[in-house]
User: Fold these one by one.
Assistant:
Number 1:
Amino acid sequence: MIDQHFLALLVVVPLLASPLCLLLPNGRLPWLLATAVAWVVFALAVFGVFRVYGDGPVSYWMGGWQPPWGIEYRLDALNALVVLIVAAIGAVVVPFAGRSVPAEVDGANIAGFYAAFLLALCGLLGIAVTGDVFNLFVFLEISSLASYTLISQGRNRRALVSAYQYLIFGTIGATFLLIGIGLLYAMTGTLNMADLARRLAEVEQTRTVFTGFAFIVVGAAIKLALFPLHLWLPNAYTHAPSVVSAFLAATATKVAVYVLLRFTFTVFGLEFSFGAAPLSLILATLAVAAILVGSVSAVTQNNVKRLLAYSSVAQIGYMVVAIAMVTALGLTAATLHLFNHALMKGALFLALGCVVYRMGGADMDSLRGLGRKMPLTMAAFVVAGLSLIGVPLTAGFISKWYLVLAAIELGWWPIVAVVLVGSLLAAIYIWRVVEVAYFREADDPARSEAPWSLLAPTWLLALANIYFGLDARLPVSLAESAASVMLGGAP
Amino acid sequence: MTGAEALPLALAIPLLGSVLIALLGRWPNLREAATLATAGGLFLVVLQVLFGLLAGEPAEVELMRFLPGVPLALHSEPLSILFALVASGLWIVTSVYAIGYMRGNNEKHQTRFYVCFAVAIFGAMGVAFAANLLTLFLFYEVLTLSTYPLVTHKGDDNARRGGRVYLGVLLATSIGLLLPAVIWVYSETGTLDFRPGGILEGHMGGIAATALLMLFLFGVGKAAVMPVHRWLPAAMVAPTPVSALLHAVAVVKAGVFTLTKVVLYIFGLDFLREVPYEVVAVYLAGFTLVAGSVVALYQTNIKRMLAYSTISQLSYIVLATMVLTPLAEIGAVVHIVAHAVAKITLFFAAGAIYVASKKTEIHQLDGIGYRMPVTMGAFAIAALSMIGVPPTGGFVSKWYMIAGAFQHDYYFVLAVLALSTALNAGYFLPIVFRAFFRREPEPPARDHGEAPVTMVAALAFTALLTLLVFVFNGPLVTFEQVILEVAP
């Protein structure tokens, strides 16, 4: 059964578990259920990745209805990687939530929190696996609504405003996508991605298709927080509970990047997206601005969660600039960074979650002297921070290597400079944290390390940064086949 | 044990040693024994690699596949053996010295100190034996990051500021300039292997090659060519054993070693002669050489003066490398050794003076030669080597550099060498004069004799090595000539 239906199960299991969570009493039970679901999903994702690499793309017809009438779920090299990222981060983050969520979320809302979390997981996986554009919109809304709920659970009252801000931006983005999808449907009469790609070729020089394209690209750009549409992101990540920041930072923007890739490369096709419209230039320009503005803003932040949020804006810039290159190497770099950035930001936010658990806040002041007080937590932060900077022997270095190599191959020297300046700015903002933690004295220097149930997931991700920095074969080969899928070669 | 078996061990020993030192942190005597055992073991292993090479079996070991076409790999060739021998040999001496220094000063966090020291040596060994540019770059960064906790050892504001400059300059140059240079080479040639005669020939030319050369020259911040030299004086906030081994030998020599390796095995001498404006590198090094000496002339703090002298001396090596004649290359290589043993002696002496008398300024040294005759005697020998007077190692290297410059009739180089010799004499001889020919101010601020015996033994030994480099320069030069024979 699993062999046939794993693609549907990937979405259905968290979807059904979510209302079950609501029925459970507040306490540890909802957490146990969520953990079990996250691990099952992870197992399914790993199975899926092996299937795709063993036998090629997998297609699943929902309810047995043949596409393009029925909804098709499809797993190829590109979305297998995205599914793997989402499921893996979910499986690591939920165990962390066991200790962290009761400390940061109102006790009466625990069951609801996990219900929303599972819905978010379901939505993100759904976006990744579906082969139907309207279904994609539905899952986008599921994940977005769940995310708004999750963010609003932060103890600080500003979490409500942040969630509201995100809701406004997110809804505009989703509406743009919906308008775009509607226009495409009006022109072609189909919603299946593969079918759309075939039929669009006949009508692609019409103004309606161009308009639809523009709506979809802008909608995706809002969801992936591309500068200057990133304004919702810093607040959302800062005020959300730590687990939510870690989960969303590592997965939500990545899935949005995937949406952009899927539409531009699969649905509209390379020639249309980057030939007829000056998309490459626009994306590259905005990405450069994102890298510089995001990094400089990060340097000036006083709250470390906010600092990491701005750093995410910059990191998304790296992915987008790599996409704008539209070469095999560039797309490899983009997908690779998708994977590596999930690892580093996940680890960084989880380490901060440990800090918040013990110190009650994540501003620079509460990090004073933590090098002594919480040595293991801060060591994990430093490892992930080095990866973010792109120091050799970490995953971040591999990303940077491919990114710079792709830029040099094209002769885009200004991009090379921007990427490296971005790395140096990353070194500055990470080092600000390191200096506070290791050189300033805490008021109460007694050792108070986070419990192992928080440390284990944090270190798992931190060590993954080192492992994939030493042996990058798996992500590199995944990224290379994803790039060849996008460029239309054999997967 | 063959050379190929010994090669991975040269990396494994200091790394495992650091773990062992960390585990033994609670028992200082055992911990120090672990440091000495690791250092001794490493030296023996490096000797094995040397014997393998002398027996005509150059070793090449692939550790793991890293990126397509670029494995993490090690190899042995005369230049790497030389650097590894210098770093690992002097590590033993420095460990002996450091035990006296750290205990004599009652320093805090000694376990962290020895652990980071061992990791830094691991980085230096990796740089020495790297078989390609990427492997070298990886270990180059290991060396930068592992020495940061050593530089900021004191943990006060001064140390933090020093550490900030240190890490800032070294990371900015390596990530901002060296990394793109490495990736550029890979993008043009598809390989990063060090090959005799270089790999760039036929792939690149004209002004692009000049740009690449400049990226390397400034990207290797550890070579301290002005204006990327600022980290070196900043690093002087570190405890003296760190300054002695790392900032006079391992770290800075890793810099000039990298440049020499890039010149010989990536560009190749013949190709580099065709690169337009390659002579700019000579002028930059010449300027640093003279300017470093001039700044050293005005320093009042002993360690800062030694730091600027190091900047100047490093540029001797860069300059000699960029003269691009065989004899000058030999001069550059010999100077790596000659400067290492002499400068470590000078730092050891500065540390011994500090431990014995708490003096750090030059003007306080009046008459100190009578209280610490061995220390100041060793200082005098090392100072002569800096100036380049026989019978010291510094004379040998200067001899080859001048001979190399004559091969090309490089009068700029000759003038710079002459000028800097005068400047070196100008700031080293007054110290020797003060120590032996001036009277101590009355009454002596603090009654003291020589520093602890382990420190004095260490510095006397390195002073002796300075003399031995002069006496036994023949084998050294013949051994290194192999580099040029394989790279015609």
Number 2:
Amino acid sequence: MPEHTFRLNGEQVTVDAADDERLLWVLRDVLGVTGPKYGCGINVCKACTSHLNGKAANPCAIPVGDLEATDEVTTIEGLADTVDADLHPMQQAWLDHDVVQCGYCQPGQIMAAVALVRRVAAEGREITDDDLDGIRNICRCGTYTRIRDAIRTGAERM
Amino acid sequence: MTGPNGRRRQAEPGRRRFLGYVLAAPTLVAAAELAPAPAAGARPASPDLTELLDLNDVMTAAALPTSGLITVEVQPDGTVSFALPRAEVGQGITTSTAMLIAEELALPPERVRVTLAEARPELLFNQLTGASNTTIATYTPIRVAAAVARHRLLAAAAAELGSPAAHLTLHDGTVRDRSGASVDIGTLAPKAAATRSEPVEVRLTAREDFKVIGRPHNRIDARDAVTGRKKFAMDLDVPGAKPTMVCRPPTINGKPGAVANLADVAAMPGVTDVVPIDTGVAVRAETFGQCVDAVRALRVDWLPGTAEGKSDQSVLRELAAAEPPMGLPPLTPHVEATFTFHFRSNSALEPNCAVADVRPDRAEVWSALKSPIVAKEAIAAKLGLPLGRVTVHIAQGGGSFGRKLFFDAALEAVEVSRRIGKPVKLMWHRADDSRQGRTHPMATSRVRADYAGGAVLGFKQRHTSVATDLGHGLGELFTAMAARLPVGDIGFSQTFFHLSQSMPYEFGLATRLLNETDKGFNTGSMRNVYSPDVTCARELIVDRLAAKMGKDPYTFRRDFLRDARSRAVLEKAAEAGDWGRQMPEGTAQGIAFHSEYKSVSAALVEIDCRPETVGRPIRDGVGGPRVIKAVFAVDVGLAVNPRGLEAQMMGCLMDGIALALTSSLHLREGHFLEASWDNYFYTRQWNTPPELQVIVMPDTSDEPGGAGELGVAASMAAVACAYGRATGTMPTVFPVNHGTLSFTPKPTVPPVPASPTDGLDHVR
């Protein structure tokens, strides 16, 4: 099987996998990185949301062969390492607002939130209700209100 | 003195005493019997069975004669461990349990390690997580065990420090005497351990002295969740357990016939095994991505299922034919309507899944299971193994909403593992979970209420439903208890219905009947069983009665509610939500009430049904009417963790919005059209109210009521009532958008969609 090299949570990794193996399964089944969750496999539930070069990406829809050796994949496990603290400010905001219920979607929610805040900051503006309405990540426990509150708090601290 | 189960001692002055145990062990192990007896003594006769005995009393009483022990262990490292015989699926019971133990042991809840107990058959009915019963059933026993531990620790400290126990204080895990000398509970644990098991009599911390219970506390498992460390069943690393999926039939419960290309698929990259099983054709591979490809490649002759040719329309006809008789219309003025509630999916975000390792003489299973004892028995029976050779580990659950009362994936996993002789990590594709998974059954509710002068004379509700499968232990519980209940010779669905449904209003002669039909569907509860539908229908009729009788919907409810506690939550919701304020045309408020699980609740919502809102563009989703504000008032008697209770009500509200406005399954030609989250429209951010206030009422009881499912009914009903007032037309079909198919159905063969390849195009 072909070898694929990319950066994962700050380290260079090389895996044997078919070109079209989706990154989600390379992470979970080959590398044992289980933070990104399966919720649909067709990029609609967003439970697997991670970062590709700092932006929100869904590994269930990315063939591993599409990655370059310099591409930086960050999963929830590597998020805190992108800041100089035990937790990323968004993770801390999640704790402060006691967002989590079952927790299954929350790694994806947090990664989506961080990417949203970065995108909005790059556009030089504040987060709006429309931005929050536009988040597509499903939470079947219905923690949406606390997610919105936590994102606003996390954004202030980022 | 002590009753048959040796818990409460009667006729003692002052605070009640309880009997617990200390068990022989190397460290301190304190124990109590699970489930205290319900309060004895006759209550006033009433037309409502729920006032004599409610669902939770039955569940609690059913556990009594054979309860096993639950144990609180104090470890030498100063932590306290407890294996909770329930499933944590997001409802926060590990946190509230840690709080109960922390209260009695004067510890920070963070020092209490709550794990989920393996299946313990000796607990019988006492390891079932459902009907919002966990806190009700465990509130006293857990505290008794912790109090026994406290008692032993103080006794050991007295010896250690040379001070009388009465001179000692226990705080933050340290015992101090009056001189300031101290010793940590970890040091004390082995010394407080018992060499022989014996009963210990304790008093519990009085409510007025609570320092942990009743104060908001964040979840103890949150840090693991936000760092990705929380492990769900599919995250477990069980040696040799490789990804496994099942190629499923195009119609509900179809059966596999011949497989045309089994050898070809078995030779696909990564595939280790392909094997027909009862429910389809299983594929095991190195990755789930390879499983998806193999499932899509299989060519299978499918045999008919259990709902062949059926559609929404044909099931509606079955329901109409099965409706219990309503009787002739009264001569007095009356209102009457029939409401339809379509099939809904109780899929959690974590799909059905289980890990299984079946050997010739034993089996081991890992799964999030809310009825693990029944699961264990069913697995043992399926494999022909003695019960003692089956181990069932309870994994953390990624949501349940009723789904994890069943163990469909665990049964499949053991079947595959046995057939191929290898461990498997079996997961349902989302499309499987949506199309072949459990659903909340379609139902109709016909309601008639008659009135004269200022009084409501009678209220009849006839609820007719596709059969709800309660065959996960709850059903057995009710069958076992039915003979002891004053309900006559009826089955457990009817028993459940009568026990869970109440009439909170003074509506004269009120009758409710349930009839069920058609067992061809995979059904189950869905964050409650009957209440959201039954309450929604009732509350819509209440609004109509109020209109006919010339009263405001809120005032009408307040005037007809039977007790002060119910009126208090309604008044609080109305006050906080500014009931009656002027709103633009096309928008409106709605208010509704629901009581269950010894708890009362009221919701007030504001909805925007203006065309520009309803038609707002949403990609691969539905907008529809938007709930723009919600106020929810709740009184659970005693709130152990108000912050967790608020979270549960928030989640219940999101479910209520979905049930009223957007979420349903469409049945066509024996299968459901919905195959994923872009078809099944559970509440999304764009459907949530930007303003939400949850009000936890001051405690009204010494005992906690249930909460996990409580808030769905009032939420759904309030949204429905608001929709009716905003549009001027009372909705009678739910969800209100069911008549419009808002997506293009995915194929049924192959049963799962291809994995997309365009992920890089959507990075943002």
